[in-house]
Amino acid sequence: MSLTSAATLATLDRTGPRRITDLAAVEGVTQPAMTTLVRVMEESGLVERRGDASDKRVTLVCLTAAGASYVRTRRQAGVHAFERLIGGLTGDEVEAMVAALPALKHLAELESQDREGPKQ
Fold first, then answer.
1. How far apart are CA 100 and CA 93, in angstroms?
2. Is residue 113 scored above 80 in pLDDT?
C-alpha cells in the first residue's frame, strides 16, 4: 500500500468521512489522483462512498470495517516496532525521550492542524 493510501486511511480514521476534494487537499495530491486512489481503496473494500445527509449533492468517503481494521493493525505494528527499538536504548536515552514527549506531542498536534486545514 502506498504512503498516500495509508495516510488517507489514517485521515479518515481520525476525522471521519470526508469529501474527495478535502482528502486531496489534506494529502497534498490532485483531485483526479485522489479519485483514482479512492476507487482503488473502494475496490479493495477499505473505503466506501456515501451520500451526505446534509447535502444530497455531496459524496463522502468513509472507512469500512476492513479499512478501520487495517489502520488499527498498522498502528499496532508501529507500536511494536518502537517497543523493540526503545528496548535497545540506555536508561539515559529513554529518560531523554520521555522528557521530549510533550514537545513531540505538540509538534504532532501542529502538523495535524496544518494537514487538516480549517475546521468545517
1. 11
2. no
Residue located via cell numbers 493493525: 73
- The structure's pTM equals 0.73
What are the tens digits of pLDDT across the range 46-82? Answer: 999 998 888 888 899 999 999 999 999 999 999 999 8
Cell of 13: 480514521
The identity of residue 15, as a single letter, is T
Secondary structure, 3-state, the chain? CCHHHHHHHHHHHHHCCECHHHHHHHHCCCHHHHHHHHHHHHHCCCEEEEEECCEEEEEEEEECHHHHHHHHHHHHHHHHHHHHHHCCCCHHHHHHHHHHHHHHHHHHHHHHHHHHCCCC
